[in-house]
Design goal:
Belongs to the glycosyl hydrolase 9 (cellulase E) family. By secondary structure, the protein is mainly α. 49% of the residues lie in helices and 5% in strands. It has a single domain, classed as Glycosyltransferase (Alpha/alpha barrel).
Length: 488
């Protein structure tokens, strides 16, 4: 039997309806709550993760700037503005495309999390065109210490790129975040929405050819409708080569997201000039299905969409977001996905996306939820300084650098604080999960994992039961076809 047939049979087996039901509403609420655990700066009185306190209150002082606030992007205490901006873009995209599926409370909390980030991003571009702030904190000293944010005594150096040196990658990402967020706030706070859009336009006005500038242009086109951004998308698409690496999407590569985002306008307005973006987006979508022509995604034996990387579920969640988003574009336009001679219904894309979410929430070979605080079984030790350390309330004295390594990092005890809603790095290609604080690739949470899963969970909260019959018939047909047309 050829490997392709075996892959199809394995995928058929792992995508059958499961007996595990999930509370997508609970998971959605918790996925947004997670962002409160990542807050930096002065915390508000309504802070729900009460084991956190104020932190990093002098950020930006070395450059005579106010850079207090924003998010720690992972389990350490650095503020990296590039992945932070991507996280904000994805929170905004979740609100824009899936906000209608959220409860009023969840949508409000999404906007609160979004605004905590955009308020900070406005600070990072407040000195344009002369300067853009790129980072606060020094990675090496920070990573040498295991300190909760409230106790940090490592350098909080702020870094900036000064004109005329280019910072087109960060500028493009910040422009995308502010433009996307301007759409999210347009109906609820039009004055703030316009402030975000004005700053997005100003930030985009830089030179360079990074994929983030296409990303920024795509969001500015969606936010403004201006033809200048459409022209930019048309003129610069091939700067990266034909069909430039369309399999990738994450904080460090926006290509897959650009194609899917721009495809929306082709679906809605049939704009021929940008049709190549939709064509490439369809190649990405076809790659999720193993019996289609061309290159394909990989799956673990348990059915997890798998791309190698330092944090597995970062890739899974981001690509699942694109899969679900494109499925909705197909549904709303009453179209199918065409992969060579094969026609795939939008429901097949929906079901495959649902399988990924269910896997993350516990329907996997380890029978473990990879969202902290969701379900009855989830990892008890994660690679996160704040969660693993006693809170200021229970341990008011500072926990210094070496003390943190000795008494906290190596402790066999469960984390004293639950970082509710955090989606961690997850299992390996064989569905195995070792866990533990020392295993950062498996147990570290990040804002850029959680941001896209917010939208995905919102959709399945509103659409918890999907008809699997057509999906199963689809895969059975291709398995039968492959068997009959192939000799062993």
């Amino acid at each position: 039997m050829k490997p392709s047939i075996w892959s199809a049979i394995v995928l058929l087996l792992v995508l059958v309806p499961t007996t595990i039901s999930h509370d997508y509403s609970d998971a959605l609420t918790k996925s947004i709550l997670f962002f409160e655990g990542q807050r930096s700066g002065y915390l508000p009185s309504n802070q729900r993760m009460t084991w956190r306190r104020h932190s990093a209150l002098k950020d930006g002082e070395n450059l005579n700037a106010d850079l207090v606030g924003g998010y720690y992007d992972a389990g350490d205490n650095i503020k990296f503005h590039f992945p932070m901006a991507f996280s904000i873009t994805m929170l905004a995209w979740s609100a824009n495309d899936f906000g209608s599926y959220m409860s009023p409370a969840d949508l409000r909390d999404n906007h609160v999390a979004l605004r905590w980030g955009t308020d900070y991003l406005l600070k990072t571009v407040s000195q344009l065109p002369n300067r853009i702030f790129v980072q606060v904190g020094e990675a090496t000293p920070d990573h040498q210490c295991w300190e909760r944010p409230e106790d940090m005594d490592t350098p909080r150096t702020a870094y900036a790129v000064e004109a005329p040196n280019p910072a087109s990658d960060l500028a493009g990402e910040v422009a995308a975040a502010l433009a996307a967020a301007s759409i999210a706030f347009r109906r609820f706070d039009p004055i703030y929405s316009q402030l975000l859009l004005d700053n997005a336009i100003k930030t985009f006005d830089v030179n360079g050819y990074e994929d983030e500038l296409l990303w920024g242009a795509a969001w500015l086109r969606r936010a403004t409708g201006q033809d200048s951004y459409l022209k930019y998308l048309v003129d610069n698409r091939l700067s990266f080569g034909e069909d430039f690496n369309y399999f990738e999407f994450g904080w460090d590569n926006k290509v897959g997201g650009i194609n899917v985002l721009v495809a929306k306008e082709v679906f809605e307005k049939n704009v021929a000039a940008i049709a190549p973006y939709k064509d490439t987006a369809e190649k990405l979508m076809c790659s999720y299905f193993l019996e289609t022509p061309g290159s394909h995604m990989r799956y673990s034996p348990g059915g997890l969409l798998y791309k190698p990387g330092s944090s597995q579920l970062q890739n899974t969640v981001a690509l699942t977001f694109l899969l679900l988003t494109y499925a909705n574009y197909l549904s709303k336009s009453s179209q199918q996905l065409q992969c060579g001679s094969l026609s795939i219904q939008p429901d097949s894309l929906h079901r495959l996306a649902k399988r990924q979410v269910d896997y993350i929430l516990g329907d996997n070979p380890m029978k473990m939820s990879y969202m902290i605080g969701y379900g009855s079984r989830y990892p008890q030790q994660i690679h996160h300084r704040g969660a693993s350390s006693p809170s200021k309330k229970t341990h008011p004295t500072a926990i210094k650098c070496s003390e943190g390594w000795i008494n906290v990092f190596t402790s066999p005890n469960p984390d004293p604080n639950i970082l509710v809603g955090a989606v961690i790095g997850g299992p390996d290609i064989d569905d195995k999960f070792i866990g533990g604080r020392t295993n950062a690739s498996e147990t570290e949470p990040t804002t850029y994992i959680n941001a896209p899963i917010v939208g995905v969970l919102a959709y399945f909260k509103a659409n918890p039961m999907l008809d699997d019959s057509r999906f199963l018939r689809f895969f059975k047909r291709f398995v039968t076809k492959s068997k009959s047309s192939t000799t062993n």
